[in-house]
Design goal:
The structure is a single chain. The chain is of the alpha/beta class. 41% of the residues lie in helices and 12% in strands. It has helices at 3-16, 26-43, 84-87, 98-110, 129-137, 153-157, 162-178, 201-221, 236-240, 242-245, 255-272, 293-301; strands at residues 55-57, 76-82, 114-118, 146-150, 182-186, 226-228, 289-292, 307-310, 315-319. The longest helix has 21 residues, at 201-221. The protein is globular.
Length: 338
């Protein structure tokens, strides 16, 4: 069965309340679980909590808050949701986390301060997104202008049925969109690239994680969100330089790896806010295309850094935006109002 067809079935099951979809046989699942546990013991944990990066970035561009007498339009509001990768597990400084790098890059592009809130949780699966969205929307603070969600890896390793995974994700995206937020989803990374993961788990992990990534894209693009493929953990840089791109546990990205991730996501975040110089028009020279959503999702799942943007009806744009390097040393944030 093709990846596009499988992804359509998963997304349809999520939309209409179907059960789990068997992507691999029962015997293979047992083997996968055994090797997943071995891989977890190999990579280990013990990294501690990720640093907190909430606060105001790019304060030189304007005042810290909206309101009467404030100069300029006030800060853009950026929120980060998801799992340990979104939280920045594995680095020691707040400015090295992907959320801080995105906030600094967004402030530089928009020439406006950016107020960052990161509600991601290490170890989270997609069923935690409902809680994370509630933290963002149920308080007195205004809803974010743009939200970035990075989720899916734990769903695969902990055997959450893919239909449930996509259902939780689309529910969260729907709530954010109804609140007026732009949403960018970094889809499930290709777990077949993790060094301590061996065959046959490597092949199966790649297959299952890419199918989930494609199904995530189908589900959220229908709601007006954009996706960016994490693919093989953000491209050939990780395969070529694993010692630099992965952290000490050989599983989570290093500071350099997170910078590469932020550089891949930033153009899509800026495009969602109409801040990117490249429009949503297709650039044939960059192999961009308009495809049915399922085919676009399948193609993006196999190629890191590929954006899928909703177009007309059941069609989507497959974009390869030019990356923009984020600031090498992000300034420390002004403490958030709390």
């Amino acid at each position: 069965m093709s990846r596009a067809r499988t992804a359509r079935r998963i997304a349809a099951g999520a939309a209409y309340g179907g059960g789990g979809l068997g992507l691999v046989g029962v015997a293979a699942v047992g083997l996968v679980l055994a090797e997943v546990q071995f891989a977890k013991r190999t990579v280990g944990t013990g990294l501690g909590d990720p640093p907190r990066a909430d606060g105001l970035y790019g304060s030189d561009f304007g005042g810290p808050a909206d309101g009467p007498g404030a100069e300029g339009p006030g800060p853009l509001r950026l929120a980060m949701l998801g799992d340990s990768t979104a939280a920045g597990l594995g680095v020691h400084r707040a400015r090295q986390t992907p959320a801080a790098l995105l906030a600094s890059g967004l402030a530089a592009v928009a020439e406006r301060p950016v107020e960052l809130r990161n509600v991601a949780l290490s170890g989270a699966m997609s069923d935690d997104l409902d809680r994370q969205v509630g933290v963002l929307l149920d308080g007195e603070t205004p809803a974010p202008d743009v939200c970035v969600i990075m989720i899916g890896a734990n769903d695969v390793t902990r055997r959450m049925p893919p239909t449930q995974s996509v259902r939780h994700l689309t529910s969260a995206v729907r709530r954010l969109r109804l609140a007026g937020c732009e949403v960018v989803v970094g889809t499930c990374p290709d777990l077949g690239t993790i060094e301590p993961v061996y065959q046959p788990l490597r092949w199966l992990a790649r297959r299952v994680s890419r199918q989930l990534a494609a199904a995530q894209t189908i589900g959220v693009v229908a709601l007006g969100a954009r996706t960016i493929s994490m693919g093989d953990l953000l491209g050939p840089e990780f395969a070529a330089n694993p010692r630099e791109m992965f952290g000490p546990d050989s599983y989570h990205p290093s500071a350099e790896g997170y910078a590469t991730a932020a550089m891949a996501i930033l153009p899509t975040v800026c495009a969602a806010l109409a801040l990117w110089p490249e429009s949503d028009r297709l650039d044939v020279a960059r192999n961009e295309d308009m495809l049915p959503v399922a085919k676009a999702a399948s193609a993006a799942a196999g190629q890191a850094g590929t954006e899928v943007t909703p177009a007309r009806g059941p069609w989507a744009l497959l974009k390869h935006r030019r990356r923009r390097r984020v600031p090498a040393e992000s300034p420390a944030p002004t403490p958030a109002e709390a």
